[in-house]
Design the sequence.
């Protein structure tokens, strides 16, 4: 029925299957431990005992059994009684010590059939009753701004284990004091508790007693701090001044106009959270600025522009109702205030052509040239900074009006007096005629797009002097 080679292979396969059945058991191996559980902890108070549902090869069990204390493997002695095993560390048990049992690998029964085991156990040696307990703790709302939190334990505890397992939410920096018997701990805030808030303390069960036992459970409670019903608000918007490089508020004054880049002060009725004030202030139209608290009280803030205010502009300042004081109390009201900038324009006070003062009032001014040159002096109402002098040159021109066949002026030089308030300009190549009028125009562009000083001031109108060259 089967060829010879196939018969031989079938015989070998059947023998292998029968042999495997003798080596591998399909029985279930159950293991019982004398480890008790309480409040999430595992304990033993006697030699570790394992009871197997089958009789096992003792050596194969001992080879895969590992016991560790606090993460380090320790040597053990094994005592067998039929299918029960007692395990005792050679160094003895450590009360309150944390142990882990690893029982993993292949073991055999007395008939040499293999079983695969994978067991992991964690336990403490001792009694749950020996665990420290928190007997007294803060359970009422806080009545003082610097009130300490006092905790009393049933037995002395390790200092470091408490520090590592105590927490406050929100976070506060604290000092910690322990009593002489290490049963009482006082937690003192370095800064005062915030008004109108909650404080949640927690002690985790990682806290240890001096004899090595862990805290019986986690403890936590939420407390309410002192209440403050004073709602913060803005007391005044007043002027500010510099003294020896420091800003001060000029209380009792009124900011009627904004000028140049001069700061002003915003004064609150309560000490404010500066970050909330920073984020709640808006300005329209926009301007580059920063807020500067006057001191650590944070009742007065200086609005310091980083550029000049725009002329003839009304600024709208808003502090929204989400601004809070240091105790977390919001303003509940949007504060809006409006301040206009000064209408102070840059002015040309006087203009002199070749030593004669001229104005733009008349239609035509007769100007006598000096060897075809025109020397003009501009007297400004304020000093002109170095960068703005270039702007002035770009806004300045001298043009031929009539007739087109006459010479076009050529700008030869511009120089300034020491204070920077007088510009001296020399044009050359002008022409005159006895037969007809030669008309020129000296022009300085005004307005926001014209000549603007570094302070942000500009001329309200163009300056235009039309003259007859003589």
Sequence:
């Amino acid at each position: 029925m089967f060829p010879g080679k196939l018969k031989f292979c079938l015989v070998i396969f059947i023998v292998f299957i029968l042999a495997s059945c003798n080596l591998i058991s399909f029985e279930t191996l159950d293991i019982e431990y004398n480890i008790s559980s309480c409040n999430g902890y595992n304990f033993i108070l006697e030699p570790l005992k394992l009871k197997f549902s089958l009789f096992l090869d003792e050596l194969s069990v001992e080879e895969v059994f590992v016991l560790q204390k606090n993460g380090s493997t320790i040597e053990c002695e094994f005592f067998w009684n039929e299918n029960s095993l007692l395990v005792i560390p050679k160094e003895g048990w450590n009360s309150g010590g944390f142990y882990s049992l690893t029982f993993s690998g292949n073991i055999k029964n007395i008939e040499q059939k293999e079983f695969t085991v994978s067991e992991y156990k964690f336990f403490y040696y001792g009694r749950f009753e020996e665990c420290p307990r928190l007997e007294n703790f803060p359970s009422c709302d806080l009545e003082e701004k610097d009130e300490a939190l006092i905790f009393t334990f049933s037995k002395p505890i390790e200092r470091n284990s408490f520090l590592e397992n105590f927490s406050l939410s929100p976070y506060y920096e604290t000092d910690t004091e322990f009593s002489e018997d290490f049963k009482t701990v006082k937690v003192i805030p370095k800064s005062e508790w915030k008004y109108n808030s909650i404080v949640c303390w927690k002690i985790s069960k990682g806290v240890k007693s001096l004899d090595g036992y862990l805290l019986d459970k986690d403890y936590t409670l939420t407390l309410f701090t002192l209440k403050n019903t004073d709602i913060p608000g803005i007391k005044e918007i007043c002027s500010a001044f510099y003294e020896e490089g420091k800003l001060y508020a000029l209380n009792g004054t009124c900011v009627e106009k904004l000028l140049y880049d001069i700061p002003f002060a915003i004064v609150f009725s309560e000490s404010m959270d500066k970050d909330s004030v920073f984020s709640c202030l808006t300005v329209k139209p926009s301007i580059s600025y920063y807020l500067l608290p006057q001191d650590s009280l944070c009742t007065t803030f200086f609005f310091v522009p980083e550029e000049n205010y725009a002329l003839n502009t009304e600024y709208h300042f808003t502090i929204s109702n989400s601004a809070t004081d240091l105790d977390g109390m919001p303003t509940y009201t949007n504060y809006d205030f409006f301040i206009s900038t000064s209408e102070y324009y840059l002015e040309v006070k006087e203009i002199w052509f070749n030593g004669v003062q001229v104005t733009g009032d008349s239609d035509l001014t007769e100007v006598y040239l000096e060897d075809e040159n025109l020397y003009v002096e501009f007297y400004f109402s304020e000093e002109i900074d170095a960068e703005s002098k270039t702007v002035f040159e770009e806004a300045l021109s001298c043009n031929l009006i009539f007739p087109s066949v006459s010479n076009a002026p050529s700008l030869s030089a511009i120089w300034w007096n020491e204070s920077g308030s007088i510009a001296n300009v020399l044009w050359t190549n002008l022409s005159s005629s006895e037969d007809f009028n030669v008309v020129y125009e000296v022009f300085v562009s005004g307005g926001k797009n014209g000549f603007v000083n570094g302070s942000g001031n500009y001329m309200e109108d163009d300056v235009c002097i039309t003259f007859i060259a003589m």
User: Anything to note?
Assistant: The chain is about 10% helix and 40% strand.
